[in-house]
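Note to self: keep these together.
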Amino acid sequence: MGTHVTVVGIGADGWAGLPDASKALLEAADVILGGSRHLSMLPAAPAQVREPWPSPLREGLPALLEKFDGQTVVALASGDPLVSGIATTLVDLIGSDAVTVVPALSSVALARARMRWSAESTEVVTLVGRDPHLVARSLAPGLRLLVLSSDGTTPAVVAGLLSEAGYGASPMSVLADLGSDHESRTDGVAASWGQAESPALNVVAVELISDGARLLGFTAGLPDDTFDHDGQLTKRDVRASALARLAPMPGQLLWDVGAGAGSVAIEWMRAHPACRAIAIEARDDRVVRIAANAGSLGVPGLAIVTGHAPEALSGLEDPDAIFVGGGANEPGLLDACWAALRPGGRLVVHGVTLETETTLARRYAELGGELTRLRIEHAAPIGSFTGWTPSRTITQWAVTKDGS
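Structure:
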């Protein structure tokens, strides 16, 4: 029949702060699951099974839930269990019909209340169990951030990242143990943040102020020198054209084949926090460069596969979009990409040689889509005058796979 789990949110004030309805659910449970800190907040109940979460969590959950099949199971979680909480994992693992959520006030709501910041003016970034470089994606002057910390070291790490990115003048407040009797607040500025460690349960509130930061927009076409590269880079204007046709959408997956500096995959992921990408690159030095670019631009979750396509594509999750920036004449590459592409997926291929242009023209005749030639010229000095310097003409084939 499967185990049904009721997830009850609990605040830093513990048992005393729970409403009567939540207390009744916990008292009636055969089994209570939770972290050791949460379980220690409950009054003694010798007849009740209390089980800590397994480690690693996600891998151990199925066996744990199967163990208590048919019993009344309640799980404890901090605040709103669907804000970077266990309820999200449970819904993903056993389905929404098998999970009931009873939230308490979230740390986000409490932090906004303490700062007097509206939901509309605030962006939430969770670093719970995640790479702190995720903050870099959300940097823009005037934006307010609430950063959900992984532990007591997170505020200092965030302060360092802000300073490195040119946001050292930004005011920071660390709001710790929100809702408890020992709630605290520490204020400061990122560049002079002096605390190596804060209380473990904290939210960092930041009002972003630039002190020389390079301003990076959220639309495609970041300047070329934003990326560390060795010349193997899809240039800015051409990249913007490709991404417009790749059409990043939340939750969808891109393959960036022959990724070079990773610019297309990185900009795809910057389009929305839920966008995913795999960069496929054969050269080890470029793989290192892709990872560094992804971290500095706020998308450290970019997956990187080292290897030659099409062989390196075998076994990867089927994508919703594919970009091929070069090597379209590699035997079997375009066929492998087209076969893997999900129905409704977008394929964009670039070429600069006559041979590749011939290949793309043939594919266009077979499958349709758009065939475009991109000629970009930039103004540059000619002696004491200024003239146009042309880049190599790019042939771009973009096509959407039929189906739904």
